[in-house]
Amino acid sequence: MLHDMFAVPFEEIAPVVGRTQVAAKKPASRARHKVRGTPVVPGTELDRHRRVAEAFLAAARGGDLGALLAVLDPDVVRRADPVTVPAGTATVVRGARAVAEETVFLRERARHAATALVDGTVGLVVAPRGRLRIALTLRVEDERITAYEVIADPGRLRRLELAVLER
Question: Which one of 2, 56, 109, 121 has the largest count of C-beta atoms within 10 Å of its C-beta?
Answer without folding.
Answer: 56
